[in-house]
Design a protein that fits this description.
The chain folds into two domains: 108 residues, Rossmann fold (3-Layer(aba) Sandwich); 131 residues, 3-Layer(aba) Sandwich (Rossmann fold). The protein has ten helices and ten strands. Helix 8 links the parallel strand 9 and strand 10. Helix 1 crosses helix 10 and helix 4 crosses helix 9. It starts with a helix and ends with a helix.
């Protein structure tokens, strides 16, 4: 996606994977400071990376998670493009403020809850570790769904969002109990590998509107590219590059 965008605009550069263990994060960020224009940060480093940055964008500071870092003259600034990238995908799907249920309490969930609450949505949050969900809603808004109420809430919610990694790399698992889906509305899964998760397949079979993780991936990527380059991203070029990946 980013390689195609750079090529389309005639910008010299590249985008590569930098596998980084937790105990190597500090050294990696010093490497970024001295040799990279910017990076994306993914799980499990979205919160831990903040201590190695010089500055945080207001949205990233409020969310408490960073997924994009820009190096300006050796000074590292952290941003969160997950939040607006997610909302960009919702807008493309024609979804407008109402009630939503977010599954998860990690970095992506924090970004999504923050953006939804600040866009006027009524947001419920469920996580298997209830204390993490409680911390999230206390900091960002929304309300906690406890374990014995989750199936009832799922069935009644008009927008269900899987912000966990359940289903990543495994097309046969879902974050929902078998046979439990919203009665109507839309289901969003931020997992993009596989493109069509079990959750999305089940939702489609039930006649629900679905939005896959590829759209959020594109949205956050467009915003990150614009932060790194200072100019508009070639959105359709980036979309085609994503769609061409087997």
């Amino acid at each position: 996606m980013h390689g195609a965008a750079l090529a389309a605009l005639g910008i010299e550069g590249g985008y590569e994977l930098l596998p980084t263990p937790a105990d190597g994060l500090a050294a990696r960020m010093e490497e970024v400071r001295s040799g990279y224009h910017g990076v994306n940060v993914t799980v499990p480093h979205k919160r831990a990376v903040m201590e190695y940055l010089d500055e945080l964008d207001n949205k990233a500071a409020m969310i408490g998670a960073v997924n994009t870092v820009v190096n300006r003259g050796g000074r590292l600034t952290g941003y969160n493009t997950d939040a607006p990238g997610f909302y960009w995908a919702l807008g493309n799907a024609g979804l407008t403020p109402g009630e939503a249920l977010v599954l998860g309490a990690g970095g992506a969930a924090r970004a999504i809850v923050y953006e939804l609450v600040n866009r006027g949505w009524l947001v419920a949050v469920y996580n298997r570790t209830a204390s993490k969900a409680q911390e999230l809603v206390e900091q960002l808004g929304g309300w906690l769904v406890v374990g014995n109420k989750i199936e009832k809430v799922i069935k009644k919610t008009p927008l269900l969002i899987n912000a966990t990694s359940v289903g990543l790399g495994d097309p046969d698992v879902s974050p929902l109990p078998e046979g439990v889906l919203p009665e109507s509305g839309a289901v969003v899964d931020i997992v993009y590998e596989p493109r069509k998760t079990k959750l999305l397949r089940d939702a489609e079979a039930a006649g629900l509107q679905t939005v896959g993780g590829l759209e959020m991936l594109l949205g956050q990527g467009v915003l990150a590219f614009e932060l790194w380059t200072g100019g508009p991203a070639p959105v359709e070029v980036m979309r085609r590059a994503l769609e061409e990946v087997e």
